[in-house]
Design a protein that fits this description.
Oligomer: single chain
Distance between the termini: 38 Å
Strand content: under 5%
Order of helices and strands: HHH
Structural class: mainly alpha
């Protein structure tokens, strides 16, 4: 992976992580770096899932892929928040 791919993964991860966090109701007790990391992982997994279903490369905006990624990020934020609150 080249430097531009890494930078775009981080930027997409930030956007997906923040959108996933906004979807989850209430206050999440995870930091910004965890949100970004969850977003990056959700973006990568979501792209793979969208590719498997053939909806990753469409004409125009890939809304289905974005929804999958945001949904995965919301699940990741929720899971991480619950695991952090259990240990306190």
């Amino acid at each position: 992976m080249e430097i531009d791919g890494i930078i775009s993964a981080i930027v997409i991860g930030i956007v997906i992580g923040v959108l996933g966090r906004l979807v989850v109701p209430g206050r999440q007790r995870i930091g910004v770096l965890w949100t970004i990391l969850v977003g990056i992982v959700a973006a990568l997994i979501g792209s793979a899932i969208a590719g498997a279903f053939g909806v990753a490369d469409t004409k125009g905006v890939d809304w289905v892929e974005w929804l999958i990624q945001i949904g995965l990020a919301a699940l990741g934020v929720t899971a991480l928040d619950r695991s952090k609150t259990r240990h306190r």
